[in-house]
Amino acid sequence: MLTQPDKLPLLKSSKVLLVGSGGVGCEVLKNLAFSGFLDITLIDLDTIELSNLNRQFLFRNKHIGMPKATVAANSILQMNPNISVTPIVDNIKNPKLSINWFSSFQIVINALDNLDARRHVNLMCQAANIPLIETGTAGYSGQTTVILRNLTECFECQPKPLEQKTFPVCTIRNTPSSLIHCVVWAKNYLFSKMFTRDTSKISDLDTDKDPDVEANLSKESEVLKNILYSIQEKDFPKNLFDYIFGTHISILLELKDMWIIEFDKDDIDALEFVSSTANIRAFIFGIKPDSIFQIKAMAGNIIPSVATTNAIIAGIAVTQAIKVLLGNISDCKTVYYAYGGNRPQLLYKESLLHPNPNCPICQAQYLSISSNYSKSTLQDLIKQISDCKSYFPTDFEYSLLENDRILYDPDFDDNLPSTLESLGITSGSILTLLPEDESTNPTILIAIQEKNQTEKSAITIEKCGSESTLYGANQVPKKRKLEPKENGYSQEPNTGSKNAGKALKKSGTDSLPSTTEIIDLESTESDKVLIE
Ligand SMILES: Nc1ncnc2c1ncn2[C@@H]1O[C@H](COP(=O)(O)OP(=O)(O)OP(=O)(O)O)[C@@H](O)[C@H]1O
Ligand SMILES: [Zn+2]
């Protein structure tokens, strides 16, 4: 894999942080351990489950219930005892894992399964000015990309698609036409009515605040409750069945709404209930029933994780990490893998894109504020900002926020006497300084770090992260490529899937971006680099 042996020392001295030790993470760890990396830190908050074993090959049956990070580290050390692997069993969002801590690595690789953690790592890497390799897989699709501060798009440069799928209310209630409609009915309506004591949960359901719908819901609940009261009686099962699959079906034909309430796909009783009732309903409506396994996938919104997809994406991710560390930035690409679509190739690549000038994360300046937050007041912080001319322009007018909460603005100073701690601002909090005049001043994100508790209330402000030491940073192309390579495909409308490193949910080959190049396995030299 390594084509520049003279640069091997660069890898040996690089500290790499791997976030997530699941399907992709185990593969990445194995690749790192055999590519010349000597110092790997691995973090995962979870423990090993039986269902992980088919693809997370560092884990065995005897490890079930044990922390993934520790077991993965031990397993890989048995394969290569000459490296150092430090496992951390924790949430990557733990405030103790500060920007300074992120700064101690030369590169970070994400092998995560959720948007929230990905967003956090993206922010920390932007603040710490550390390169991030993003990965994502879903079934037979996957992608990986490289995120470099000030050079490429970050994870937030393009909006993320909504993850939740919803169904038209009347289809679920009145006219189910496929098994998924019956599964949604069984899981979200019937299950909750039967087994959820807290009827207030019904307020979570999307009734469009229609009084008729809500009246119907409460009438149904009442009837069902009365039947449930007769649970000791001989006719209870028959009455219940008749109501749900007889009387209730006719009532349903007159109703017009649907619900969404959680159920646990891993609770076997819950799953069997939902599966049986969905299949009975499907039968009544002339829809083909299916197995409990398939219904579990539908009810749990499960997209199967495929070992080969994980291995391919992990391989490319580590290749990209090596390129970044060796300074071959111009060779780094966003790479998509898609199997089973209507295109013949499996791998497609796209040039890294420049940052979106309106992105609130990568366009922000990052400062860190050290403070003894149990003694420092908001007033102290505001004063320090106005005194600190090196980072803030003179007469800088701004609002200070924590997420959506306004802490201070020129017309709101109620919080000034409060200590930072009493305002809930402690180590790891990220504050946003939103300038009044956004056209001339950038947003500033400030990370709060803890100062020695014995020190006075003084606050110090510093720039976050180290200066970039990236080799080859000037190699990133200035513009997005506009024409597709000669590959036989016409330019397609941009579907948004070019989003660097986004949480990949469903990306068939049809959703490939217009600027995609096809990686032909027998094509050019530079293409081969990606898959060696
Ligand atoms: N905030 C976080 N901090 C640390 N690790 C995280 C965080 N969020 C997710 N992870 C870890 O990222 C890994 C993602 O791997 P993967 O997608 O294979 O998940 P999984 O839970 O093992 O598999 P599946 O969801 O398919 O059952 C998991 O091991 C998960 O524990
Ligand atoms: Zn961005």
According to CATH, what is the topology of the largest domain? Rossmann fold
* SS summary, helix count: 14
- Structural category is alpha/beta
Q: Low-confidence spans: pLDDT under 50, at least 5 residues?
A: 198-207, 477-532
Name the helicity range.
25-40%
> What is the alpha-carbon Rg in Å?
27 Å
Number of domains: 3
Subunit structure: Heterodimer.
Pathway: Protein modification; protein sumoylation
GO molecular function, one term: ATP binding
InterPro entries: ThiF/MoeB/HesA, ThiF_NAD_FAD-bd, UAE_UbL_dom, Ub_act_enz_dom_a_sf, Uba2, Ubiquitin-activating_enz, UBQ-activ_enz_E1_Cys_AS
Describe the protein in words:
The chain is of the alpha/beta class and 532 residues long. It has three domains: 5-161 and 305-354 and 482-529, Rossmann fold (3-Layer(aba) Sandwich); 169-299, Arc Repressor Mutant, subunit A; 365-463, Structural Genomics Hypothetical 15.5 Kd Protein In mrcA-pckA Intergenic Region, Chain A, CATH 3.10.290. Helix content is 31%, strand content 16%. The protein has helices spanning 8-12, 23-33, 68-79, 99-103, 115-128, 169-173, 179-195, 211-229, 236-252, 268-284, 292-299, 307-326, 378-387, 525-529; strands spanning 15-19, 39-44, 84-89, 107-110, 132-138, 141-147, 333-338, 347-351, 365-371, 398-402, 405-408, 430-435, 444-450, 459-463, 517-519. It has a nine-stranded mixed beta sheet with strand order 3-2-1-4-5-6-7-8-15, with helices on both faces. The protein has a six-stranded mixed beta sheet with strand order 11-10-12-13-9-14, with helices on both faces. Strand 10 and strand 11 (405-408) form a beta hairpin. It is globular and about 80 Å long. The relative contact order is 0.14. Mean pLDDT is 80; it is low at 198-207 and 477-532. The structure holds adenosine-5'-triphosphate and zinc ion. Residues 20-23, 25, 43-46, 51-52, 68, 91-93, 112-114, 117, 305 line the site of adenosine-5'-triphosphate. Residues 20-23, 25, 43-46, 51-52, 68, 91-93, 112-114, 117, 305 line the site of adenosine-5'-triphosphate (ATP). Keywords: ATP-binding, Metal-binding, Nucleotide-binding, Ubl conjugation pathway, Zinc.
